[in-house]
Amino acid sequence: MVESPTAGRAILRKPKKIICALDGTWQDSDSGWVRGRWGQPGHLQNPSNVTRISRAIKPEDSEHHAQIVYYQAGIGTGLGIKDQLLGGGTGLGLSEHIREAYYFLANNYSPGDSIFLVGFSRGSFTARSLGGLIGNLGLLNKRGLPHFYEVFLDWTDAGNPESPGPSFWEHYRDPLEPEKRHIPQTPSNDPTKVYEYLDEYRASKSIDFHGQAWSPLTN
After folding, report:
1. Cα three-residue angle 160-133-213, rounded to 5 degrees
2. Are 178 and 187 in contact (CB under 8 A)?
3. For the segment 93-140, what is each residue's pLDDT rounded down to a tens digit?
4. Where is the T6SS Phospholipase effector Tle1-like catalytic domain (predicted)?
5. Are strands 139-140 and 214-215 parallel, antiparallel or unpaired?
6. Contacts made by residues 27-33, CB under 8 angstroms, sequence distance 24+
7. CA distance 50 to 21
8. Does pTM top 0.70 for this prediction?
9. Residues 6 or more apart in contact with residue 10 via CB below 8 angstroms
10. How many CB atoms are closer than 10 A to CB 31?
């Protein structure tokens, strides 16, 4: 038996690129066929620009970095008429889209990877919100993901003066001076109210989920 010349060598993984392609309202690359309406015949669906971009990305770039694409159909593309009308008309479901994209990134990210966010229409809002969430709180690793929904609710309530305060951080908060706040949406400079909030980033680094819960971000 001839031993492979690479046997016993450490295999170095190149950092990958993770691309989130988030489509706009009523945009869905998977439908394929648009049914006719008002007496007009049906036709093949024209791919959106977000779809075109996601399909144009190769599995590897010129330097052999893996490129992982996550495509998310736009708001209002569900099968039911309720989703199509409420989602398309009011944006219902945006929070769910943000969480789904975050889950994908958290499950696939490794230190050193690069993240790219592409969006159109409400997909661009999803991309901006997702980028803000990552910028403020970072990416949970797989140990911390079971707690993501609580973290997300605290993040979305950060600017609400009527909110009772972050539940997830209840045992980790510290009284903060206004100039030391990390999250700009903290609702008030009143120390009695600021106390109910916290520097989420600093507190998260001190929480132990039987191991580190946050992935170190580089790009």
Report:
1. 110
2. no
3. 688 889 999 999 999 998 889 999 988 888 888 898 899 888 877 888
4. 16-162
5. antiparallel
6. 27/51, 27/73, 27/74, 27/77, 27/120, 27/121, 27/123, 28/73, 28/74, 28/77, 29/54, 29/55, 29/71, 29/73, 30/73, 31/77
7. 6
8. no
9. none
10. 13
Cα 139 from Cα 214, distance rounded (Å): 6
Number of C-beta neighbours around residue 159 at 10 A: 13
What six digits make up the tokens of 134? Answer: 């990552």
Which pLDDT belongs to residue 96? Answer: 87
CA distance 216 to 218: 7
Q: Which DSSP category does 17 fall into?
A: E
Structural tokens at position 111:
């230190």
Q: By the 8 A CB rule, do 109 and 117 touch? A: no
Per-residue pLDDT for 86 more than 50? no
Largest CA distance in the chain: 75
Beta carbons within 8 Å of 182's beta carbon, 6+ residues apart: 136, 199, 200, 201, 202
Chain centroid to CA 43: 33
